[in-house]
What we know:
- The complex is a heterodimer of chains A (about 325) and B (about 280).
- By secondary structure, chain A is mainly alpha-helical.
- Helix content of chain A is about 80%, strand content about 0%.
- Chain A contains 14 helices and no strands.
- The termini of chain A are close together.
- With about 280 residues, chain B is mostly helical.
- In chain B, strands 1-2 form a two-stranded antiparallel ribbon.
- Chain B has helices at about 5-15, 15-30, 35, 50, 75-110, 115-130, 135-145, 150-155, 160-175, 180-185, 190-225, 240-245, 255-280; strands spanning about 60, 65.
- In chain B, a hairpin with a 5-residue loop joins strand 1 (about 60) and strand 2 (about 65).
- The radius of gyration of chain B is 22 Å and the shape is elongated.
- At the A-B interface, helix 1, helix 6, helix 7, helix 11 and helix 12 of A face helix 6, helix 7, helix 11, helix 12 and helix 13 of B.
Amino acid sequence: MARSILRGLLRGAAVVFGVVTLTFLLLHLAPGDPVQRLLGPAATLEQLEAGRHTLGLDRPLPEQYAAWLGRAVRGDFGASIAQGRPAAVLLAEAWPATALLILLSLVLSWLFGILVGTVQANTRRRGLDTTTSALAVALNAMPSYWLGLALVMVFTYQLRWLPAFGAAGVDAEFLSGGARLVDRLRHLALPLLTLSLIGIGGAARFSRAAMRAVRDSPYLVAARARGLPQSEVVVRHQLRSALVPIVTLLGLSLPAVFSGAVFVEAIFGWPGVGQLLVQAVQARDYPVVMAAATVSAVLVVTGNLLAEFLTGVVDPRVRHAGA
Amino acid sequence: MPGPKRFGGRLWRDPRGRIGLLLLAVVAAAALLAPLVSPVDPDAQRDVVATRFLAPLTTDLHGVVHPLGTDRLGRDVWARLVYGARVSLTVGLLGMAVSLVLGVVVGSLAAAGPRSLAVLLLGATDFALGLPRVVLLLLLAALWKPSAVLVVVVLGLTGWMPVARLVYAEMRSQLARPYVEAATTLGAHPARVLFRHALPNALAPVLALATLGVGNAITLEAGLSFLGLGVQPPAASWGTMIASGRDTVVNAPWVGLAPGIALVLVVVGCTLVADAVSEQ
C-alpha cells in the first residue's frame, strides 16, 4: 500500500511538472506579450523594450524557466502583471472557492446518481427505467455554460429567487453571521446546481450500468434465497461490489468536473481558479497563468490520488495486491 | 465483427441507435442543406432597430418570417442555427478524426511493437491523460489567433488518449487469438495482419468511444467560442450564439435557448448511438 501511494505521488509530481513546463512553453512561444497588453497600442518601441526588461522577458527562455522554477518551489509565483498583487495571494484566495464548488458538486452528483442508478437497475417498471435513463442522457449532454444560463433565466429573472453573480452580495460585509451564511448559500446555489445536475446525469448512467452488471450474479441470488430483505441485498451486497468501478470513475471524472467548473465560474462570476485562469490568459498575465495552471494541476492530481486510495479502501483485492 | 451492413442493421434495430441516428441525421441534413432550409442570410442585418429581438414566428416589416425570432442585431436565429451547425459539426467531427487517427496509431504501435516502445507510448498516454484538457484548450486558443483550424488541432491533440488506451487493450486481446496466428503462418505481412485483420475486429468499442468523443468535441468547441476564444463573430457558431444570448436572457431568451437545445440534441444523439454500438 505504502509503495503504491509513493508511486502515485511520483506520477502526480511528474504530471504537475509536465503541466507547468508545457504552460510555460506555450505562454512564451505564443505571439504577443503582456507588456503590449499593458502599455497599449500607443507605446513606443523603447517603452516596450524597457517594460520587457523590467519583467525579465528579454532574457533567454531556459534562464527565465529556471528562474521561475526556482522561485515557484519556494512558493513565490511573482506578482500579477495586471493587478500588481502577488500571484500566490490571488490563488490562495481563489482555490478554496473552486475546491468547495467541485467537492460539493461531486458529493451531490454521486449521492443522487447512485440512488437513481440503483433504483433504475432494480426496478421492474420498464417505463420508469426508460424515462429516467433518457433524462440522465439529456442532463449529461447539457453544456455547463448553457444549463447555467437556462437556470439563471428561471431562478433569477422569472422567479427572482436566487442571485446569478458572485459569491456574496454587495451588503455581505454588514450582515450578521447567520444572514451572511444564508447569503453565501444563496450565491452558491446556482453554480452548484448547474454542475451537480450535469454530474447526476453522468453518475446515474454509470451507476445503473455497474449495478446491472452484478444484479444477476449467483451471490446475489444466494443472498435473496437465504431470505435477506431486498434492502439489505441491495445495499450490503450489490452496492458493495458495484462501488469499486464507481469510485474508480469518480477519480477519472475529476478533470471533467474541473472543466465544467471553469465555465461555470466564468458565467456566474464565481471567484475561483477557473475564472482567474480565464481572465489571466486573456490578459497574458504570465505569473498568474503559471500559478493557476500549477494549482489546477495539483487539484486534479490530488483528486486522482484520493480516488486511487479510496479504490484501495473499498476493494480488498487492490488493498492487498501491493503487499 | 460482422460486415458493415449487418452492423448497421443491428444498430437500427436498437431503439437507442435508431433515435440517435435520426437525431444526428436531421441535424446533419439541416447543416448540409442550410441554404434550402433557411433562405435568409445568417449575417443579414437590415433595419436593426425595426427587426431586432423579434419573437419566434413573427413576420418583420420586410415580410420575412423568423421561425425562431431574431437576435440583437436583427439577424435570423434559425438561419444562424443551421449555418452554425456546419461549423459545430465540422469542427467536432474533424477534431475527433484527428484524435482517432492519433489514438489508433499510438494504440496499435504499443500493442504490436516491442515491449520498450509499449512502455514508452503507454507512459506518454497516461501522462497526457493527467493533463487538464480545458486548461490546455484555454491556453492554446487564447494565445494564438483564434480560428476553427486551431480549435480542430487542439481538440485532436488533447483527445487521443482514451482512444489509444482502448485500442491498445482491444488489440492486445485480438493479437492473442488463433486467427492472427493463422494469418501470420500463411505468410501475411505483420502490417497486413495488424491493419486488415486485428484492427477491424477491435473497432466496435473504439467506434463507440469516438462517437461519444464527437459530442464532447462539439461541446468544447462551443465552450471556447462562448468564451470568445473559438470561432470569431460575425461567423455563426452555436457557442457564440449562446454567448450573445447571455446578455439578452430577459428580453429575448430564444437567442440563447435555441443553440443550446440544438447542442443538447446532437450530444444526446451521439450518446445514444455510442450506447447502441457498444452493446453490439
